[in-house]
Amino acid sequence: MKKFKFGEIKLKKVDPQQLTDRVLLLNLYITQGLTLIIGLIWILFQKRNPIHVLNFPENVQFVAWGLGLAGVMLIVDFFLTYIVPEDSMDDGGINEMLFRNRPVWHIVLIAAVVSVCEELLFRGAIQHAFGPYWTSILFAVIHIRYLRHWVPTGWVFLSSYGLGYIYIQSGTLWAPILCHFFIDLFSGLVIRYRRKS
């Protein structure tokens, strides 16, 4: 039997246009599943109960925090599209491929899965350990498709910091989950219907 060597692993850059819809969705759901599992394990290692972390708050003040930040982020994003050259905001076409022909129910599902999984890991587990600043740096780094340009990388960092801030202020993970969900849903619908027209 041949011995496996890590040095023989070669990473190949893939053009997003080479991805099939099935591979793209498979990649999305696998990475979100791993994100959820890592988040749950991390929370357990912190000797915290994931069910308590995801407790739904008794008052609805978190809705104002979540939708308020989402509104601010959408306004800033709108202005960035007019101020910054389009190629500087390019994510390699991944969002376009993910949402352009997707049915509305699936866009809602994607936004829900991504918001819950990523916020549980980043705000629920990592921010608890390292605070909002280092969490936001890590959040920007994992959004690797934006790292080629400093403007979207900076915007992802600031967005993450905002999500961390409303988590602290509202005292519930549901505020950043709601904000993240609404941003992803709105962006997905814009891409879908912009392409249809």
UniProtKB/TrEMBL annotation:
<feature type="transmembrane region" description="Helical">
    <location>
        <begin position="104"/>
        <end position="122"/>
    </location>
</feature>
<keyword id="KW-1133">Transmembrane helix</keyword>
<keyword id="KW-0472">Membrane</keyword>
<dbReference type="GO" id="GO:0004175">
    <property type="term" value="F:endopeptidase activity"/>
</dbReference>
<keyword id="KW-0812">Transmembrane</keyword>
<keyword id="KW-0645">Protease</keyword>
<feature type="transmembrane region" description="Helical">
    <location>
        <begin position="65"/>
        <end position="84"/>
    </location>
</feature>
<feature type="transmembrane region" description="Helical">
    <location>
        <begin position="24"/>
        <end position="45"/>
    </location>
</feature>
<dbReference type="Pfam" id="PF02517">
    <property type="entry name" value="Rce1-like"/>
</dbReference>
<keyword id="KW-0378">Hydrolase</keyword>
<dbReference type="GO" id="GO:0080120">
    <property type="term" value="P:CAAX-box protein maturation"/>
</dbReference>
<dbReference type="GO" id="GO:0006508">
    <property type="term" value="P:proteolysis"/>
</dbReference>
<feature type="domain" description="CAAX prenyl protease 2/Lysostaphin resistance protein A-like">
    <location>
        <begin position="102"/>
        <end position="186"/>
    </location>
</feature>
<dbReference type="InterPro" id="IPR052710">
    <property type="entry name" value="CAAX_protease"/>
</dbReference>
<dbReference type="InterPro" id="IPR003675">
    <property type="entry name" value="Rce1/LyrA-like_dom"/>
</dbReference>
<protein>
    <submittedName>
        <fullName>CAAX amino protease</fullName>
    </submittedName>
</protein>
<feature type="transmembrane region" description="Helical">
    <location>
        <begin position="166"/>
        <end position="191"/>
    </location>
</feature>
